[in-house]
Design goal:
This protein has 3 helices and 9 strands; from the N terminus they run E-E-H-E-E-E-E-E-E-H-H-E. It is of the alpha+beta class and 162 residues long. The two termini are 28 Å apart.
């Protein structure tokens, strides 16, 4: 059985929450968090995980000891430049051994120009920094509705980076 865990951080004003059940959260609330992160900076991460339980003798005493992460979808934003959207997908038709994809910004005028995202001073090329918020909403809605991104979505917007 897979779970979809959401963790998010808004930079200003500071707000965060970890390991929320993504599929049990109202879509309207998710959109509010994404908008807040887009305007104020922060990150929004959804992970498709499988819980691992301890080997308790009795079922009622079994506990989750860890999670195995299969897919990871991340939205990281610096309000000065835009956002990064990436996904690490354990299995997909094109790359059955797994792959890491980043949203490619085809409208970047200088694709190799470097932006420095705060607060960690991470450097990103302009070709991966996006300002079209509707794409992020579309991607996270597809995950919300289907539990994964379709091959069509991956072909349309994402490029394999590793």
């Amino acid at each position: 059985m897979f779970l979809y865990q959401l963790s998010y951080v808004v930079r200003k004003p500071v707000a965060n929450s970890y390991k929320i059940n993504y599929l049990e959260t109202e879509w309207r609330t998710i959109v509010e968090w994404l908008e807040s992160i887009y305007k104020n900076g922060g990150e929004f991460i959804v992970e498709k995980v499988q819980p691992v339980h301890n080997d308790g003798l009795y079922v009622e005493f079994r506990e989750i000891t860890e999670f195995i992460i299969y897919d990871r979808y991340s939205f990281v934003c610096d309000p000065r430049y835009g956002y990064l959207l990436a996904c690490s997908i354990d299995e997909c038709e094109r790359y059955p051994q797994g792959a890491y994809f980043s949203l490619l910004n085809n409208s970047a005028e200088e694709p190799t120009e470097v932006f420095v995202f705060s607060p960690y001073d991470d450097e990103w090329e302009a070709q991966y920094v996006n300002q079209d918020f509707s794409i992020a909403l579309y991607v996270f809605r597809e995950i919300y509705d289907n539990g994964e991104l379709s091959e069509e979505t991956l072909k349309k917007w994402f490029t394999r980076t590793f």
